[in-house]
Amino acid sequence: MSVFISGATGFIAQHIVGQLLEQDYKVIASARNETKANELSKNFNNSNLTVVVTGDISKLDAFDSAFKQYGSEIKYVIHAASPVLFEVESTEKDILIPAVNGTKGILESIKKYAANTVERIVMTSSVAALSTYPESLDPKAVANEDSWNTYTWESAQISGGNAYFGSKKFAERYLWDFLEENKDNLKIKATTVMPVFVFGPQMFDSSVKPKLNLSCEVINSLIHTPIDGEISPMLGKFIHVKDVAKAHVLAMQRDDLIGKRLIVSEDNFNSQDILNYLNEDFPVLKGKIPVGNPDQSAEGKPSKDITYDNSRSRELLGFKFRSLKEAIDDTAAQVLKHEGRI
């Protein structure tokens, strides 16, 4: 039996595909267009990988052809496709509708063509589903696996930040509500994975571009900030991409993770933490990038933004997350090698 993964050309999703193939799963991966599909096939070059083209996932029938063709083979679904955007023309059209329709569409396609074969679905959600955007910046705020943000469809349209946070809640809620409503005729069990900022290397060196995906660009931009340049202030929590991918695979495999919402977050970070590790661990950058104020780091210190209490998730997953040093060094080393600097 196979694993179907949506949005398979995404940063996290490619690592999930990699770990599944390492464990000898047959994987059916979806890409938005032919170019991305061909690149994914070529990069993995694995006979256990089949890549299908879905087109725009905001169209409710986007997944129909894939499940019509392969539904009888699919036992597991990992739904990793969702927009990671903030600056858009229309928050509703570009963020909210694609996120919800992607979830709605894949679930309806499963119901139509794979109701008897799909047993598990794992969805990539986000800690954004747990709080409002302003709450995420509040050092007094605490969220855990039971939390949900309070956005309505209307209030989520006010800004890109609101829309992103709202989209994560609406898409995830749709999953849980759909499975509850269809529990008598679908045997599917679900788990959701909620990452924070995800650092680490791209799955393939060829994916390193001048501008990286949203999370990794935080590190990439500091690698390319001149010594007298302005340091972009950044504060948040991080997780290594390989740990996020592992959480998805375990959520698919283990019965004790059924019905769980898993927060994957290791520690606090800020721009200064990143500069400290870049300056300490990469001599090629010393004297080229800012030093900042080395004692103003956030790692291992009380949170200056929201606290995500993920003690339950850590205990359930049962493996140690990688450190901030490893996450930053893995990201930076790949970029610097690609640029021929190390």
From TrEMBL:
The keyword Oxidoreductase applies. It comes from the Eukaryota. This is Similar to Saccharomyces cerevisiae YOL151W GRE2 3-methylbutanal reductase and NADPH-dependent methylglyoxal reductase (D-lactaldehyde dehydrogenase). SUPFAM superfamilies: NAD(P)-binding Rossmann-fold domains (SSF51735). Belongs to the NAD(P)-dependent epimerase/dehydratase family. Dihydroflavonol-4-reductase subfamily. One of its GO terms (molecular function) is oxidoreductase activity, acting on the CH-OH group of donors, NAD or NADP as acceptor. InterPro entries: Epimerase_deHydtase (IPR001509), NAD(P)-bd_dom_sf (IPR036291), NAD(P)_dehydrat-like (IPR050425). Residues 3-256 form the NAD-dependent epimerase/dehydratase domain. Keywords: Oxidoreductase. The keyword Oxidoreductase applies.
